[in-house]
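#dry-run=false #mode=assembly
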Amino acid sequence: MRLFNSPSGSTVSSSPYLFFQAGLIMALTTVIAWGIGNALSAASALMVFLLGVLVASIRSSPGPAVLSAAWGFIGYNFFFTEPHHTLAMIHYEEAITALFFLFIALVSGNLAVRLRWQIQALQAAQQATDTLYSLSLELMAAPDPKAILQTAAGFLQQRFGRPVRGLQRDGEQWQATVISGGRDDASEPDERDLAAAEWAWDNARAAGWSTAEFSRSRWFWQPLVSEQRVLALLGIHGSKTVLLPEQRQLLDALARVITLALERSYLTLDLESARIQGETELLRSALLSSVSHDLRTPLAAMIGSVSSLLQYRGQLSDGDERELLESTLSEAERLNRFIQNLLDMTRLGYGRMKLTRDWVALEDIVASAVQRLHSVLIGLKVHTRIGDGIPVLFVHAALIEQALVNILENAARFSPKNGRIDIEAHMNGTDLELSVADQGPGIPENERAKVFDMFYTVKKGDRAGGGTGLGLAICQGMIGAHGGRVEALSGPHGKGTTIRIVLPLENQPALPDDPEG
Amino acid sequence: MPVGGQLKILLIDDEPQILKFLRIALQSEGYLVLQATTGREGLEQIALATPDLVVLDLGLPDMDGLQLLQQLRDWSQIPVLVLSVRSRDADKVMLLDRGANDYVTKPFSIQEFMARVRVLLRSVTGAQENRTLDRFENGPLTVDFVRRRVFLDGEIVHLSKKEYALLALLARNADRVVTQKVILREIWSGAQEDNTHYLRILVARLRQKLNDDPSRPRLIQTEHGVGYRLLTNNET
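#status=ok
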């Protein structure tokens, strides 16, 4: 199949045939001209010869065109100029006519050839454009480099009628992508073929079958090069007939399109991985700064208290001793909560945590959270009001509890002495709304959405009170895993802060009432 | 105040720091403390030294807690208190269902630990205090097992069959955790063994009738994902 016929392409394929064809046409022309010349006049015969030259030339190339013109000149001379049936000419005007004929025949023959070529070239260019365009379209749909190579190989296989492979380098190993489209009876590239491929890759030059390098390889390897870098190799299986120059040209053009597609794809991948790396880096540094602060503060207090107790054993008053011990205990408990948060967060963050849902009463979750924060909530008035009509929840209880613990701990931290914390729950349609209101300083309205942002809170992690800085972000993750959300609102009467958990319950499994109650 | 001069407690744990503080605390309470750092050693000590209580850590170097418990239960009914971490909740429940008697989750306070130890040793010492086989009394609550009646501050409380069955089950195991599986099996005859939904509703109704504040229960305490525990005044 010829797609990219160049003007020179025609001569390459069958020059002797074209000469033969021209001769045949001129022989026929001579017979017709003889007939017409005898019936009418020598001038008519001359016109027939000219027509013959044009017909012969338009299907041919310069050589046969010249042959036709010469044939026409001799034919006219032989049959129609005095003396007949000789190549001599005695009439001056006949000789002029014959020479004019020769000149016109040469020029018009040549013009006819060039016209033919131009049409051919235009057609070929059109076809090549179509081919490139359809390949580009197909490549556009491919999501990654591998898919691009697959598509390209399938496309080339169809166009060239030979098995085609795409090769990607996978570390030090060669990884041949599976070719889609078309039957493929070629055996996979063996060691010898891959050696040729490796050379082609390393030198960024075509190698293998039909080239000077590694010509014993059964595959022809075309590197796809972008900015001195080989992105991939195209392998075309060799056969008895070599690749025609026009096919090589087509291959080059297609290779450029494939290279562009690969470049685009690799660039997208690079950007994506850079973005992910950037985020991971941010998260890591946020965690590190948080860990160094949030782990060290309680540890410093614990080490200080316990070493004081050791150092001044027997010298401390009972009250002092007790105070140091209590602070050690409460700091250890804080550390424990923080570590729990860290563990939960890493599990949530990497999407590995699976919700293990079970039926649980909201009252139990609240009771457990308040119980766990017993030492933190000392000195604060905690009021719990759980409305009627709240169904039993089908949730991962430990996560909801941890979310509530984080909110309560936050509330306690910002509460004034003897402050009041209100835990309130009610149904709003099919949503459960669980709010914790404190009497702390409150959060400015424009910062309310940001308190759930891990980076934001961590940046402010050094604020007074020694917060974990991650609590609310984790809280949101845990409630989010249940399809709910967490909101920061102003407290009751515009004072303090209310954090509200909204948990949709419409997707909870429905159960009939217990038959025996 | 020492509970019983010569009660023997075996600690099976491979972490020396945990062993150290448990030993010091238990000795301060007047118990005789034995130690083992591997499962094999632990089983040997149980056979040879016949302790009254085993404290078993879930993570041991040579065998896991479940294996040890299975081997132990072939020949001994000695009370076993399990030490676990939160990430091993599932293991903990499995152990309770296979014959462990109670658990504490690390990190725990020593008060919590001692409370569990005392409750488990009650059955050994036979010190049932004010409890007999036909009656449970705790503060304002009285359960009459014979007549199947429940009184709160002397007033009779009308309970449904299932409510009574649950309360009686918890009361017979006062201060000990009763796993969901056991409750579901006992009360619903196993028909609903996987469905804890009815159980939550039943507990809510029982608490209401017993005047137990669900957000600060004094009587029926929920052990998340494990089961329930009836609290008495004697312990936490």
